[in-house]
Amino acid sequence: MDVKVFIPRDTTALAMGADDVVKALKFQSKQNINIIRNGSRGLFYLEPLLELATSNGRVAFGPVEVDDVESLIAHGLLEHNIDKLQNHPLYLGLTKDIPYLAKQDRLTFARAGIIDPINLDDYLSLDGFKGLEKALNLNNQQIVDEVKASGLRGRGGAAFPTGIKWQTVLDAPASQKYIVCNADEGDSGTFADRLIMEADPFVLIEGMIIAGLAVNATQGYIYLRSEYPQAKIILEQAIKIAYDKNYLGKHICTSNNHFDLEVRIGAGAYICGEETSLLESLEGKRGLVRSKPPLPAIEGFLGQPTIVNNVISLTSVPIIFTKGAQYYENYGMGRSRGTLPVQLAGNIKQGGLVELGFGASLDTLINEFGGGTYSGQPMKAIQVGGPLGAYLPKTQWHTQLDYEAFKDIDAVLGHGGVVVFDDTADMAQQARFAMEFCAVESCGKCTPCRIGSVRGVEVIDKIINHDNQKMNLELLNDLCDTMELGSLCAMGGMTPFPVRSVIEHFGSDLVKPSLAKGEK
Amino acid sequence: MNDLQNTSGNADAQLNKLTIIVDSKKDLPGGLLPILHDIQHEYGFIPKVALGIIATKLNQTEAEIHGVISFYHHFRLTEPGANIVEICRGEACQAMGSKQLENHAKTSLNIDFGQTTTNKNVTLEPVYCLGNCACAPSVKVGDNVHGRMNDKKFDKLMNKLTTFELSLSDNKLQENK
Ligand SMILES: Cc1cc2nc3c(=O)[nH]c(=O)nc-3n(C[C@H](O)[C@H](O)[C@H](O)COP(=O)(O)O)c2cc1C
Ligand code: SF4
Ligand code: FES
């Protein structure tokens, strides 16, 4: 039997040395060995994860470092000597049975890490383009209705119902409409978009074609952040193949439907993740936020009706058609339907991507999956939903992953980023950073955000330095009010979330109690 | 990335090349960012002369082009060092000690963010998330991300850049990283 080994070409796998492992393996094996560069399964704490194909399925080893290659070969990697390999200290058993993976609901990420991202046959063999096939037999309204019935809400942060957005674009009369994929993934602590674009790019292409069919849009753009060069390479390879095989172009699957797709690269501006700023940037301008209305669905790219959707929203579309809206809708709780790919990050032992139906508690995620902190110190705070999300204290970790449940505690699920901090974290510094980040990334259009954030840093510095703490805390609260109420977009409007959560739940870090006594 | 000095002796050649780049993308809807990316990819930064060419071809003023360039952190108007080293300042990296790493990098390289070492080898930049948040803290050198970074690993990485710079060209550096 041929020796077939899988080693990912995903950014995190590469960042942990996957290329060096490949080189070492090629160098040290005397025979021909078939090394597939797959995407990552998202079990990042195990990267580089090396898998070996066996007659019982793929078995895994990880994390594999260059120095482990010799012992893997000595344990019979190249002879499929499973009896001996089982005794290797990095042996993890069948990949699909690793509890971290087995306990997930892999719907959107069903193929991630299993396939070679740019092998079309791999994609087709695991239901690839089946959703498109179905959509090609439906009319516009039927496609939009299916998305509505799935209950899918935008995964970029605002959780707006995707089907309703599509309906608006469908109903807007225009000769040219656009599909724009928001792949700016600016939230720190998130990597779901990157992971799926690098592991399964065809699913994004398929989702975008279906969106195009739904509203008669013939041109799509993927606005990808410049910080993701590996995703760019893989997406462009996949798009080329899709053109060659007539999934893109003038005659999709020999039909008369037309869809063109292009990757556009951002330029390091967080605000360009906000949809109207993104559209300005895509038009070649400064990324200044537009006032709404008009909605992008009515006047978007170049003033034409445009669907702007997050990567995960669009990559969730194909399975809704392949398996039916009802199948997808059966996952979840309340008004949060389907699955959420949660990203466990920061000071966490087992960081990675966990896709689960809405409803699991934060506790389950950080303990059952995450396994506690990386440092081994007790956990102190969890920031959910990126830099504009609140810091949650232990008393809130029972909260279920559900848009409304998070709203009830003045927090956001956002794009599903979960960043864990241990007890060495100084939450006053985290509050300060929230303001600092807003100052760095503000588009500058409105004063509460542009000036307020700079003042916010100053005021927090004063509080930290015991300068008129009581008065400055009041000032900080006022400032938060002003930013919340007076900002044009959520950049300025939500920066107060993390700040206020620190004041409310970690106040003793901000106003050190022993010193506070001396204050008037 | 080409060294501009190679071409500055021949201003005409440079103008030609810039014109070709701008012409190839100027008719794209919203083509300015793709043009700027191509130019920066070619030279490592946007040379001043490019602004006039772009402005003319896109029917905009130089001030407008400058306004766009200055809005984006990624674009630069001055020549960077041979290697751009970006240190992630995002929250997931903070939770894993990136502040300490940032201080170490600045001290050991003896530069602040936005500056270049005197030997022109390294330009240090902040970055806000590299999508490697599960294996933080993260650092990016050129197009390559490095995870679970610490002071010692950072020094090793920087040493490698200096040694390689002496013996190999940029292209080979990519292949032999
Ligand atoms: C400051 C700011 C940054 C944002 N960044 C992103 C981002 O990086 N990716 C994203 O998909 N949405 C981001 N959004 C949300 C978008 O504005 C928009 O809601 C989203 O792209 C719509 O797609 P969806 O309905 O599929 O979520 C951001 C919003 C704001 C206010
Ligand atoms: S809130 Fe900030 S980022 Fe949003 S429009 Fe105003 S200045 Fe721009
Ligand atoms: S926060 Fe540093 S890589 Fe994401």
Automatic annotation (TrEMBL), chain A:
Cofactor entry: FMN; [4Fe-4S] cluster
Molecular functions per Gene Ontology: 4 iron, 4 sulfur cluster binding; FMN binding; metal ion binding; NADH dehydrogenase (ubiquinone) activity
Record keywords: 4Fe-4S, Iron, Iron-sulfur, Metal-binding
Annotated ranges, domain NADH-ubiquinone oxidoreductase 51kDa subunit iron-sulphur binding: 428-473
CDD domains according to UniProt: TRX_Fd_FDH_beta
Family: Belongs to the complex I 51 kDa subunit family.
PANTHER family in alphabetical order: NADH-QUINONE OXIDOREDUCTASE SUBUNIT F
Name of the protein in its database record: NADH-quinone oxidoreductase subunit F
Organism: Pseudoalteromonas denitrificans DSM 6059
Automatic annotation (TrEMBL), chain B:
Cofactor: [2Fe-2S] cluster
Gene Ontology molecular function, alphabetical: 2 iron, 2 sulfur cluster binding; metal ion binding; oxidoreductase activity
Pfam families linked to this entry: 2Fe-2S_thioredx (PF01257)
Cofactor: record remark: Binds 1 [2Fe-2S] cluster.
Recorded superkingdom: Bacteria
InterPro entries (alphabetical): NADP_DH_HndA-like (IPR028431), NuoE-like (IPR002023), NuoE_N (IPR041921), Thioredoxin-like_sf (IPR036249)
The entry's keywords: 2Fe-2S, Iron, Iron-sulfur, Metal-binding
Annotated positions binding [2Fe-2S] cluster: 88, 93, 129, 133
Similarity section: Belongs to the complex I 24 kDa subunit family.
PANTHER family: BIFURCATING [FEFE] HYDROGENASE GAMMA SUBUNIT (PTHR43342:SF1), NADH-QUINONE OXIDOREDUCTASE, E SUBUNIT (PTHR43342)
The protein's name in its UniProt record: NADH-quinone oxidoreductase subunit E
Source species taxonomy: Bacteria, Pseudomonadati, Pseudomonadota, Gammaproteobacteria, Alteromonadales
